[in-house]
């Protein structure tokens, strides 16, 4: 099992312990070394899991004191960390999709502005909800995915593989490889269609995430548009300092 999967498994186990009351608010979680021994994972994995739970607002870590439970809330929030295509793959594995509609569509002017393509272009559109990782949790997203109208094999294969990303199926069936994902996130409100499928009210605040999957030649392979209700979604972005650039700037200042 990979380090990321071990981290996710430990994270879910600790959150379940908090939400069930096994670790009540005000109590301390087991110490890091205790978790290392009881769960059979590395200290790095334990710290990564605790950091993720802390970002959800469930615990507070204090040096020389320990990790204290501060809340049982927000356990249904979808917490997303993305920096590579592999991260998107884990999203699909942990949050399977349920395709509700597949049809060929001609892009209207309104849709063209949203997905940034010429009006009149034809796509196969897959409409789906993506479920939370916990049983009984509400869906975390309503998504429309637009693919080449000639890639009809996807119509039969996509429903068979809810754990796979559409871009993975495109690579397997048509040999088209994605090298870049261009993503935009914006605050908006739920459309009538999205609201109905997410059991929410039209106009509810949400985040809209648009992704364009691009090949090495700059060709668009897949366009996705997802609506996430505000209380079911958290996006984390980790920015790493460019150490080489920092050293150059330091030398110049000296």
From TrEMBL:
PROSITE patterns hit by this protein: HTH_GNTR (PS50949)
SMART domains named in the record: HTH_GNTR, UTRA
Gene3D superfamilies (alphabetical): Chorismate lyase-like, Winged helix-like DNA-binding domain superfamily/Winged helix DNA-binding domain
Xref: SUPFAM superfamilies: Chorismate lyase-like, Winged helix' DNA-binding domain
GO biological-process terms attached to the record: negative regulation of DNA-templated transcription
CDD domains assigned to the protein according to its UniProt record, in alphabetical order: WHTH_GntR (cd07377)
GO terms of molecular function: DNA binding; DNA-binding transcription factor activity
Residue ranges of domain HTH gntR-type in the record: 4-72
Keyword DNA-binding included in the entry's annotation: yes
Keyword Protein biosynthesis: no
Protein name as catalogued: HTH gntR-type domain-containing protein
UniProt lineage: Bacteria, Pseudomonadati, Pseudomonadota, Betaproteobacteria, Burkholderiales
